[in-house]
Protein 1
Amino acid sequence: MKKLFFVLLALSLFSGEGWAASLDEEYKLKQLCENDAQEIFGRETRRMKLDHYKLSYISHYNKSLKTCFMIIQISTDLNLLDLPVIETLSYDFFDVEENAKVGSFFMQLDRKSGKKTLFFCHFSGQECHSLPEWQKLIKLYMEE
């Protein structure tokens, strides 16, 4: 009798409208996250000249934290006259729902010499010292 009760309970929880409603709710939250992230991306990159920058972003609704996060990536590839080819890479991490920047990473690469210069790397009040370290700090928020 107990087995039958648990089977019926499981079926009622994971089938029909309950399951579909949760999938529908999750889809709506992801869409809302994407829309809000797109708005922040537009605001943050509006004044940048596209011929100097490569701009992109990725948004993620984290189900376990019930929050939307995003990363804006800005990179440049400047080949200026006799100056060495300089490439820059920048990431800004946002809590979209709070409309707040949580962390930033910025480095420069001189492709002639191979020299990398890290200008800043921080996340939620914590300093970091490399791109892999930055990626490790944000991983919890951008993955389930």
Protein 2
Amino acid sequence: MKNLIKLALKSSKVGLRYQFPLRILKEMSSKFVLLSVLALTFSYLALAYEPSSLQDFCVADPNSSVKVNGLTCKNPMQVQAEDFFFSGLHLRGNTSNQLGSKVTPVFATQLPGLNTLGISMVRIDYAPWGLNAPHTHPRATEILTVLEGTLQVGFVTSNPDNRFITKVLQKGDVFVFPVGLVHFQRNVGNGYAVVIAALSSQNPGAITIGNAVFGANPAIPADILAKAFQVDKSVVDQLQSKF
């Protein structure tokens, strides 16, 4: 009997010994789950490039003098069907330029009803061997589909890999360019090429690499670019004269 009592007391002490750590672990686990949920929530908010609309629509008012991050809303009672309409993507763009390409945008400035909706689109026309020069969209992912022609497309991953990912597309093919990455399209066929592209911002922005680096206003000092590109300053001077 005494042995049974001793065993019971020993078991009780062991249980008490582990009960406290287990309680702490349970509390820590609950806190970890809560922190994880909060972290995911704030990550989602941080990745939301544009605020969601708090009403049915916020048609841009081009005549407003109010400056906000985006465009101010037109009086909803004055909104008409034309505010949600754009015509012109059936027209071929003028590709008579040095690059042989033409971008026709449909952003909130062209289609006021896009304001706060977080989307836009473009039509891009390419003459034979025309190029949409390497550029980035700082605020949008781009997905395009080929309507006519044959295109080589590609983008470059971020440092340190700088991996070049490229593919040749035919009519009906679709390709996506991740947000912020340098990308391009080039017509590699003998005829004209056309694409329609959608972007995840009402104002995706475009930074053409050549224009930004060699055509900055005021100009980036030539010695800085010469060192960055590891070329002679005369090469930089020549490139800057092109832009």
Protein 3
Amino acid sequence: MSNISISGRIIASAGRGITNAFVTLIDQNNVERHITTGRNGYFQFDNVTAGQDYTISVTQRRFMFTSQSFSRSGPPSDVNFIGAR
């Protein structure tokens, strides 16, 4: 299997990026990877195995997010989240 990157942005409903949000990527074997968003709310997971099922969840103390599940067999479009208060 080849590797891909999964990236996206975490934003507030007004469109402003959320810095320091904790992003978790869980693969179909329940292996977790974690990253914290940088400036303007961007994140990227590199060296992700293509062709598996994934779930991404986001936590941040001031916002709530809905997890997203998907399967990736090739280069993905961005996976973006909008926080609700």
